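Deliverable D2.4 — example input (structure tokens):
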């Protein structure tokens, strides 16, 4: 009888002990809910920086948005930022997260992102004007024809400087199309997955080759060189557009850092300044509406060229 009691106790203990790990295993498999901060660090910090300052570990062809500056292109409400997060921004490195994060996760990460920004009044999504303040600003996306009869550019770029001038580029093959004076740009391209064109707000004061310029760069043999956008920089006093000059085989002839600024004096002139690091010699053919301060032939090495445009009176 004693043997039976001992055996029963041991059997009960064995069954109890064998069930405990199963309960623990079930508890370990329960999904955990990530906080907004954890989602941000996983998906956003590599571009926008851990503190939201726009200084991430990934090198982009334009700086990521700094959230600590409090600037949001399409409004700073939770829904406005969530809409941008879901759909991305066409023409920029900002991808859509609609297939990556759930609606609840997007709301949590947006609430975390809003904590980076200083206290401000909420801006509704229809208040979409980008304003240039103390430092330059860049907007990328589709740009409409700069004048009637010209084509829309799916890949466009607007650089706004604090001096009140903005510079409009096509960037499939980098070319300055025109120069504007006044307000910067209105963005409405958040409203659809395919995007809609940017709306430049300034008045055109320089139209380069009637808004449809040819490429400026050729090899010594006259073969066209492709200007491939490399990056933009708005951390300096003037916005910088950097691009590589490539031949048909993709070989680099030169790297160019371009800035634009008005001159002082009686005439309204605007300088398109090229800081060139040439690996091979090449030629510059400027627009017929402009002049240049040096020879069109550029030898290998570091050089500068300044192309001068005459601005027309804005009304």
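Example output (designed residues):
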């Amino acid at each position: 009888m004693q043997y039976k009691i001992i055996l029963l106790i041991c059997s009960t203990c064995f069954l109890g002990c064998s069930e405990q790990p199963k309960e623990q295993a079930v508890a370990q498999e329960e999904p955990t809910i990530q906080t907004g901060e954890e989602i941000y660090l996983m998906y956003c910090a590599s571009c926008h920086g851990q503190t939201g300052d726009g200084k991430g570990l990934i090198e982009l062809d334009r700086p990521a948005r700094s959230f600590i500056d409090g600037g949001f292109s399409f409004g700073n409400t939770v829904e406005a930022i969530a809409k941008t997060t879901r759909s991305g921004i066409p023409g920029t490195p900002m991808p859509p997260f609609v297939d990556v994060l759930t609606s609840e996760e997007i709301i949590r990460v947006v609430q975390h992102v809003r904590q980076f920004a200083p206290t401000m009044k909420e801006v509704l999504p229809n208040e979409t004007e980008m304003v240039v303040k103390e430092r330059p600003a860049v907007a990328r996306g589709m740009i409409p024809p700069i004048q009637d009869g010209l084509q829309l550019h799916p890949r466009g770029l607007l650089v706004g400087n604090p001096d009140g001038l903005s510079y409009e580029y096509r960037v499939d093959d980098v070319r300055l199309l025109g120069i504007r004076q006044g307000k910067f740009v209105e963005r409405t391209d958040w409203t659809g997955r395919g995007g809609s064109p940017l709306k430049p707000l300034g008045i055109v004061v320089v139209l380069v080759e009637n808004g449809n310029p040819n490429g400026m760069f050729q090899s010594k043999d006259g073969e066209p060189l492709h200007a491939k956008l490399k990056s933009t920089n708005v951390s300096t006093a003037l916005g910088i557009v950097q691009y590589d000059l490539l031949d048909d085989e993709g070989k680099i002839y030169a790297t160019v850092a371009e800035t634009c600024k008005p001159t002082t004096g009686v005439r309204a002139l605007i300088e398109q300044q090229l800081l060139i690091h040439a690996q091979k010699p090449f030629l510059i053919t400027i627009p017929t509406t402009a002049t240049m301060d040096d020879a069109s032939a550029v030898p290998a090495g570091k050089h500068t060229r300044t192309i001068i445009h005459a601005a027309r009176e804005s009304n």
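DSSP finds five helices and 17 strands in the chain.
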